[in-house]
Amino acid sequence: MSKYYNKKVTIDNYVFDSIAESKRYKELCLLQRANKIKNLELQPRFELQEAFIKNGKRYKAITYVADFMYLDVEKNCIVVEDVKGFETKEFKLKQKMFEYKYKNLSLVLIK
What we know:
single chain; alpha+beta; 10 strands
């Protein structure tokens, strides 16, 4: 059991962290079949801050892995989605960094 009491679900050979995330995947698949969205991608990774070395100490890059990314055909924009039951402090910080660095992308939270 996860610390947030999520139940992992497998659909189409993908393992989702929660039932809510798996339901959203099904919805997005229907939207893609209806040509409302295109290029559905699961677990897209974004670098928020690159790795660096300071005073001989190596610091890892800070990354954010969203749940989904796709092209909204009607709005002609790329949408990044994250399904959240609970927003952690870490997520809120990464969301802020994402919004700063990726101004051309739209981050949508699905609750």
